[in-house]
Design goal:
single chain, mainly alpha
Length: about 500
Amino acid sequence: MNDKKRLAINLTAQIMAFAVNMGVSFIVTPIIEEISTELSGFVTLANNFITCAQIVVSALNTMASRFITIYIHKKDEEQANEYFSSVFFGNLMMACVFLIPMLTLIIFVDKLFQVPELYVTDIRILWFFLFANFFISIVGSVFGVATYCRNRLDLTSVRTIHAEIIRVVFLVTAYNLFPKYIWYIGVASLLHTTYLTLSNIQFTRRLLPEIHIKKIYFRWKKVWELISLGLWNSLTRLSQVLLDELDVLISNIFIGATAMSALSNAKYVPTAISGLMGTIVGVFSPQITIAYAKGDKKQLVEIIKSSNRIMIFMMSIPIAFVTAYGDIFFSLWLTERDPHETHMLALLGMGVLYVSMSIQVLYHVFIITKKVKANSIVMIVSGVLSTTIVFILLETTNLGLYAIAGVSTVLGLLRNFIFTPIYASKCLELKWTTFYSDIFTGLFSIACISLVAFASRFVFTIDSYLSLIGVGIIVGIIALIMNFFIILKKDDRKIVLDKVLRRG
């Protein structure tokens, strides 16, 4: 199978898996809201602690796929086995290290956070299963290398869809047949991860029969090598937590459990769009790396610019739709919440995507050029500054949740508009304005689609999911036609038209 066909299959499978995941979350969130409007935030809060732990673990795991894949393809089985076993036992040791602090959080959850007294036991059980899920995920993470190494990401995506089906079947059954408890969410996550881990172990045996986990292959030298290279990426992820995820914890401590849940729900859509963006971006990374390795700067820039255009073409539509229809969507989805407040919080959470969608590919430039340090430092400064400003605003103003959601967005916009495109150009020794045309194209596309979407609200009555989907389809078709002319170059348009006419 040629590379283009494999790329298309992998991308399609990953997007399908992502869509199923979002669909399950879409179904589950209102169920939690029915139990209590104060509880959904505790799922997010636990996941935020898990994210912080995963940042530490990622220092070891970030570069694992790269090294194992290289030595597998070099037919150096001993080196591949040493890296694989070193990562596995390293993850096992880190899981043991995290056991005590996570047990402490479970036992003293009601002392550390504002937990409604009626739901303390429910939250404790929820966190137990979520943390157990984390331990299985980090110990089994190295087995995910197999499908990456053999370029069979479609296999993982299919199993992810199966895992999501298992999760939703369990949740629907539990919530319909038994008393409603939020800890069912934790059990469902544990089932999901266990199934995926067992699947990845199976794929490792099938795709990498030369790999064997043995103590004799463990090397401290390999562990330190991977950690030293992955440390800057971990710092970058830590900064992202300070910018994007610490807000849920802050809202609980400074405002309360209800406010935390409101912010958590509002972040669902921005998180979904950001996740989709990350799924798509990952497909372009190999092409960019290969072009850089060949030293063909012209081809490299063309691939990056082309990737940016594809990102804008695909992502400007959902971003514009949330901008124009967000209040209607939230009024239908979360009937217990104020849709206008939720929409405003969602827009604040999504604000950085207005710029970052056009240049998301540029973050891979820092990796291929081995210039991740400056980006990490900027991210750290942004994260610390964001948290500091939020504390000040909470103490001196009445902005509340709007301050928590808005500060990181403002700093993110500044970073992505000023630092990211300029530094990426410098890394590639290009003119500093090289990537600004992509940013302005993306903003123009969002603005045009948003205007059409807002205009449709004066023409159609949108008061149900059916009418929202119907109008969305009509405006979506118009948006695709607009993007066809706004984003695609003349040669791109000709290729698309030729393919359409040939099929016709």
